[in-house]
Amino acid sequence: MDRLIYTALSGATQTLDRQAVVANNMANASTPGFRGQLSMFRAVPVNGDGLATRAITASTTPGADMSPGQMTETGRSLDVAIDGSGWLAVQDAGGREAYTRAGGLQTDSTGILRSNGNPVLGEFGQPLVLPLGAQVTIAADGTISALGAGDRPSAIAQVGKLKLVDPPAEAIARGADNLFHPRQKADGSEGEPFAADENVRVVSGAVESSNVDPTEAMVSMIDNARRFEMQMKMISSADENAQSANQLLSLT
Question: Which residues form the Flagellar basal body rod protein N-terminal domain (predicted)?
């Protein structure tokens, strides 16, 4: 009887974890550049004395859905969308290099170029600072040019270049901040930042939308809710069977 209880209990627990992943995807269905998180179940034998007659369910998040989102034109000179594969390098809250596809860029009061609050890095790994009040254009290779207010068109000058990288999908991992980081090495140390890739191209005046399908996410949420309900019914049935067996034993 305990096999049924613990199997259903582990399944219910992992279903709740999977529901959290789906809910996070659903919440970011309109977040530019967001990559949906994947979730999978697997059976794990319970090691111990005797035969391997027990198993529990484990939920894992093996990676992210790397399929591209839809590209939407905005007309803003600071908006960029990665054309094909590739990532935009930014600085995370801890000062480390991280990667994102969110190209809705903004400048703060000091001229630092930011993506969702994270400083955008230039080709040499330093935060990009743009002239305040200048008219900015971004070329397909990430080169940033600026024209000061009142200057003649011939005075336009290059002020920086976006750091664009294109690592293999297995070489990066999503962090708790929804940014992607170099995957840790086998010894547990942090991975090294990737070198800039000259082949990555961007489209100026556009942003990439999330690749999460809201309808599919909603169906997954309903499916998880029904699975959790079924597992709770199994636990309830096992408890009722145990109580009935105790009543029969008490009569002997």
Answer: 5-35
